């Protein structure tokens, strides 16, 4: 991940103030080396940084904090060099809690942050998230604004890599709440850059560009080549997806000098890989091959597996296009292997599309269809609309290659509205191509001609010469089928010229075969055509090109020149001084276009041989010169085409104005938005927002909270809103299953595997196939079972008792616990690696006493439920009862409240207003005590909750002082568990300090 700048340099060098007299000179040398290392780091000299730090580490009598500062700076330098494994190794000693606890609180946060950032460059992202969360918690306790922002930045990047965009945006947005409060412009720029990437991934290109612009603005005078280079790469990527290949090449080339100054090899190789892809699309095959080969070598050097896989994919596509099928298949196989290993969903889906395209070129239609279906399944799983649309368009091509025209027609009808809704130029071009193929296969030649001509215009705008040639080939086939043989030869010749230059042998061979067949049958003939059909076809092409101004103009130029034989054609833009400048010209060179511009400006156009049209009147006056006027082309037809062009240009002249009418207010979350849940507190509303954000996700979630807070209800809600909702939700209580049978119950067994195994059993995991497995009370899972569960979470593999080999299952896991798993990891009763896998996203459900405002809402909800069940009428709770219910602490939480209301309804008769006498004695008595206990007078008025909180805070602080920070002894004195004590510390933001002694 792009490192945050200067994160290791915030500590002062005061650690040497009390060094022993004999070591002060060594401390001074150490301090000098650290200063040199920091200077080298700021100048992006990372190897020099490492050398100074390694020398300084050899100094004797280094304090723990001093060593930690050096190691953090070294780790960050390794990250900048994309050597993430070495960064992790540099900090490995701090993975022991006891080592970290010897450091100052600020350095503990710094070490955890660097561990999270370093692991973020490996495949251990769940572990990275765990460390980054620890860093954030420590920074909040220490009230370090800069460390808080840096932790949010790392967490935002990690969640983005996991595909959890809601959580990523939540973290990055927090950095912007108090911009520049800590004065770090680079960090603010990185936050905007990260938000831009999120908008890009969500398909909001305009928002993404705006965020990238804000990133550059946030930098101001700061020279940060890493951020500038990253922003240029991101803008180039948007240009690529929008079909602006020339612009993307320019942006990638402008990014490289910044990245080379920043000396970050991973970002440099990523820019080269993407540059190679854009060059391939532009048909610059030789340069693309050179750039991609260089990128592949460098990606392997810096262990950038994802970039290596993407580069292999692009190289594979190049070899497919040029007919080197064997080499292409080997490259794609390597790419797919890497992508499957690192679980890179988006890239995996795109590589499968490339493999499918290659199979189509090789004539393996069935193999292509399989690859496209696999890609579609991944995109469905990820909720990626663009990838999903692209996979289905290619699947239509596979159906046609398999001669299944009916299936192609049905899928095209289904996918067309979705593609038009997404409306990117690349997808629109692909839609036109596929629509033309289906029309051609359905003997609708005039429709096919329209679509292929539109596709050619789109590919010309994009600069995608290969796809332009492919469409010219299909256009020629359409003309052949329509017996327009001269037009067919013209289209084939155009395709032949481009494909010869690109050395695209498979498609070139198809074109040559088509031309040979055409030469046998070609005859010179004049075929009468229906002018009305021709006019309708031309107008249709213009109307359907209105989605893009550039495509619309290309369509008109091609219609005027290729269909009507007019030339030259020049588009002129009026300048502020009223001169005219040619911005687009056809069938002439630049010098001729400039001369014609002067002729039009002087109003010296010969109207016998040319026409001039004014296109736009307001923001951007444009003029169109159409030359070589022919008698066979009536003025009325030209006027009709120009009128349609003007309509289309006005449609694209400026973004639609935002309605001045105020939008309807966003409704508050309904109390029953999640099935079975009733809530109104801010804490629970945030949980609901998080649940809804996981709709398209398959990530593991850990739900924590006391017994009775509704952990299973939240798990069921996550399942109900996910794409797995139509499949089983299987709950499994890890504490309820007998220890000796838990493996069989969870993983399953084969018949005869042990005594009593009379039939095959798939286990709870098998029963949850394609659905969700909810592991309740995960903290009670036996230690010996944890490695097997970890393997399942990592690889999706399950080995039933009695089987010799594992098999893969598709199951999402949600887990819940009321125990402190972090404490269990420290005690050695719960595996750390399993905890990291489970704790990628954690929902904490607050206890009912932490959200007392929900007690009346829940009480009324349960009252309505049980009066309905018991068919009783007009039972209500008195104001005194409601007051007592609100005061009670509810150790059993909502479940205990539900049981109490159920008991009251059972005791009450119709028309009863329930009074305090009916309440359970322990609820009535404890609540009354809380109500009458006198409080010490305070100088200012306070609420009961505030007074109780202050008392609790004081008791905890006194206990820590008396026991010198020993958590076990403090918990024993206060009569709470260590888990409960840690929650109280978090609630009151108390940072316990161990005292010497």
Structure commentary:
Helix 2 runs antiparallel to helix 3, helix 3 runs parallel beside helix 6 and helix 39 packs across helix 41. The strands form 4 sheets. Strands 6-7-10-5-11 form a 5-stranded parallel sheet. It has 44 helices and 13 strands. It is mainly alpha-helical and 997 residues long.
Task: Describe the protein's topology.
Layout: H1 24-42, H2 46-57, H3 64-80, H4 84-90, H5 97-101, H6 105-119, H7 125-142, H8 145-161, H9 165-175, H10 185-201, H11 205-219, H12 225-241, H13 245-262, H14 265-282, H15 285-301, H16 305-321, H17 325-342, H18 345-361, H19 365-382, H20 385-401, H21 405-422, H22 425-441, H23 445-462, H24 465-481, H25 485-502, H26 505-521, H27 531-544, H28 549-563, E1 569-574, E2 580-586, H29 590-601, E3 610-616, E4 622-627, H30 635-652, H31 682-693, E5 701-704, H32 711-720, E6 729-733, H33 742-747, H34 763-767, E7 772-776, H35 786-795, E8 797-798, E9 807-808, E10 812-817, H36 821-827, H37 832-838, E11 841-844, H38 855-869, E12 876-877, H39 879-887, H40 893-907, E13 913-914, H41 921-932, H42 944-962, H43 967-974, H44 978-988
Parallel strand pairs: 5-10, 5-11, 6-7, 7-10, 12-13
Antiparallel strand pairs: 1-2, 1-4, 3-4, 8-9
Helix pairs in contact: 1-2, 2-3, 3-4, 3-6, 4-6, 6-7, 6-8, 7-8, 7-37, 8-9, 8-10, 9-10, 10-11, 10-12, 11-12, 12-13, 12-14, 13-14, 14-15, 14-16, 15-16, 16-17, 16-18, 17-18, 18-19, 18-20, 19-20, 20-21, 20-22, 21-22, 22-23, 22-24, 23-24, 23-27, 23-28, 24-25, 24-26, 25-26, 27-28, 27-30, ...
């Amino acid at each position: 991940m792009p490192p945050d700048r200067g994160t290791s340099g915030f500590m002062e060098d005061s650690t040497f103030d009390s060094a022993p007299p004999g070591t002060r000179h060594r401390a001074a040398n150490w301090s000098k080396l650290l200063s040199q290392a920091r200077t080298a780091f700021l100048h992006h000299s990372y190897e020099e940084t490492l050398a100074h730090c390694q020398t300084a580490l050899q100094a004797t009598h280094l304090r723990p904090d001093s060593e930690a500062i050096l190691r953090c700076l070294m780790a960050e330098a390794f990250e900048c060099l994309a050597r993430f494994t070495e960064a992790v190794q540099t900090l490995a000693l701090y993975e022991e809690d006891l080592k970290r606890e010897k450091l100052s609180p600020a350095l503990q946060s710094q070490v955890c942050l660097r561990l999270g950032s370093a692991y973020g460059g490996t495949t251990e992202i769940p572990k990275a998230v765990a460390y980054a969360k620890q860093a954030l918690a420590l920074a909040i306790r220490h009230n370090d604004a800069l460390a808080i922002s840096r932790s949010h930045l790392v967490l935002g990047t990690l969640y983005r890599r996991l595909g959890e965009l809601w959580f990523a945006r939540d973290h990055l947005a927090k950095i912007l709440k108090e911009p520049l409060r800590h004065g770090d412009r680079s960090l603010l720029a990185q936050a905007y850059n990260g938000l831009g990437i999120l908008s890009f991934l969500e398909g909001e290109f305009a928002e993404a560009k705006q965020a990238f612009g804000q990133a550059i603005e946030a930098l101001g005078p700061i020279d940060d080549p890493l951020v500038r280079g990253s922003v240029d790469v991101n803008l180039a990527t948007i240009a690529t997806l929008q079909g602006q290949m020339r612009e993307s090449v320019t942006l990638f080339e402008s990014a490289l000098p910044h990245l080379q100054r920043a000396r970050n090899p991973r970002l440099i190789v990523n820019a080269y890989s993407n540059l190679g892809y854009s060059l391939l699309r532009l048909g610059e095959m030789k340069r693309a091959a050179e750039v991609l080969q260089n990128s592949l070598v460098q990606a392997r050097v810096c262990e950038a597996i994802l970039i290596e896989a993407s580069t292999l994919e692009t190289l594979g596509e190049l070899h497919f296009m040029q007919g080197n099928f064997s080499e292409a298949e080997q490259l794609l196989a390597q790419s797919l292997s890497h992508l499957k290993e690192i679980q890179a969903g988006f890239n995996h889906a795109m590589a499968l599309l490339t493999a499918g395209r290659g199979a189509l070129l090789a004539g393996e239609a069935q193999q292509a269809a399989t690859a496209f279906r696999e890609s579609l399944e991944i995109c469905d799983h990820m909720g990626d609309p663009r990838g999903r649309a692209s996979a289905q368009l290619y699947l239509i091509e596979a159906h046609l290659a398999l001669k299944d025209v009916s299936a192609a027609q049905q899928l095209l009808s289904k996918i067309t509205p979705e593609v038009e809704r997404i409306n990117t130029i690349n997808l629109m071009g692909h839609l036109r191509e596929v629509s033309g193929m289906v029309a051609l296969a359905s003997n609708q030649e005039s429709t096919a001609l329209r679509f292929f001509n539109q596709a050619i215009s789109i590919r010309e705008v994009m600069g995608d010469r290969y796809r332009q040639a492919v469409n010219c080939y299909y256009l020629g086939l359409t003309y052949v089928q329509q017996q327009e043989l001269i037009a067919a030869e013209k289209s084939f010749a155009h395709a032949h010229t481009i494909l010869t230059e690109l050395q695209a042998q498979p498609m070139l061979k198809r074109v040559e075969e088509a031309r040979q067949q055409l030469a046998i049958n070609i005859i010179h003939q004049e075929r009468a055509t229906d002018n009305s059909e021709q006019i309708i076809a031309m107008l249709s092409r213009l109307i359907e090109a209105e989605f893009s101004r550039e495509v619309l103009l290309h369509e008109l130029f091609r219609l005027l020149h290729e269909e009507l034989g007019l030339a030259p054609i020049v588009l002129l833009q009026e300048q502020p001084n009223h001169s005219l400048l040619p911005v687009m010209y056809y069938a002439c060179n630049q010098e001729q276009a400039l001369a014609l511009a002067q002729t039009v400006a002087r109003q010296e156009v010969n109207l016998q041989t040319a026409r001039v049209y004014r296109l736009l009147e307001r923001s951007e006056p444009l003029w169109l010169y159409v030359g070589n006027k022919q008698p066979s082309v009536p003025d009325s037809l030209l006027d009709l085409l120009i009128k349609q062009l003007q309509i289309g240009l006005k449609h694209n002249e400026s973004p639609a104005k935002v309605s001045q009418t105020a939008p309807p207010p966003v409704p508050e979350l309904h109390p029953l938005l999640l099935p079975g849940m009733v809530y109104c507190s801010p804490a629970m509303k945030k949980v609901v927002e998080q649940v809804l954000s996981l709709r398209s996700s398959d990530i593991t979630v850990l739900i924590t909270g006391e017994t009775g807070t509704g952990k299973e209800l939240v798990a069921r809600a996550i399942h109900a809103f996910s794409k797995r909702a139509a499949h089983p939700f299987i709950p499994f209580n890890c504490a309820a299953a007998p220890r000796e049978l838990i493996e069989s119950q969870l993983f399953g067994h084969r018949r005869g595997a042990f005594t009593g195994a009379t039939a095959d059993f798939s286990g709870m995991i098998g029963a949850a196939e394609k659905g969700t497995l909810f592991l309740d009370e995960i903290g009670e899972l036996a230690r010996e079972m944890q490695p097997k569960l970890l393997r399942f979470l990592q690889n999706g593999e399950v080995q039933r008792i009695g089987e010799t080999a594992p098999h893969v299952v598709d199951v999402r896991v949600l887990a819940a616990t009321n125990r402190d798993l972090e404490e269990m990891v420290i005690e050695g009763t719960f595996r750390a690696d399993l905890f990291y896998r489970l704790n990628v996203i954690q929902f904490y459900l607050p206890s009912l006493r932490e959200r007392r405002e929900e007690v009346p809402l829940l009480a009324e909800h349960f009252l309505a439920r049980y009066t309905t069940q018991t068919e009783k009428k007009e039972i209500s709770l008195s104001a005194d009862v409601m007051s007592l219910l609100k005061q009670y602490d509810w150790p059993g939480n909502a479940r205990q409240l539900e049981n109490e209301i159920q008991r009251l309804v059972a005791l009450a008769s119709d028309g009863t207003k329930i009074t305090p006498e009916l309440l359970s004695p322990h609820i009535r008595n404890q609540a009354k005590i809380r109500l009458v206990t006198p409080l010490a007078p305070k100088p200012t008025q306070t609420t009961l909750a505030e007074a109780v909180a202050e008392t609790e805070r004081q008791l905890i602080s006194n206990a820590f002082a008396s026991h010198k920070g020993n958590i076990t002894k403090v918990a024993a004195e206060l009569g709470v568990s260590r888990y409960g004590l840690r929650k109280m510390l978090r609630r009151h933001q108390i940072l316990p300090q161990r005292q010497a002694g």
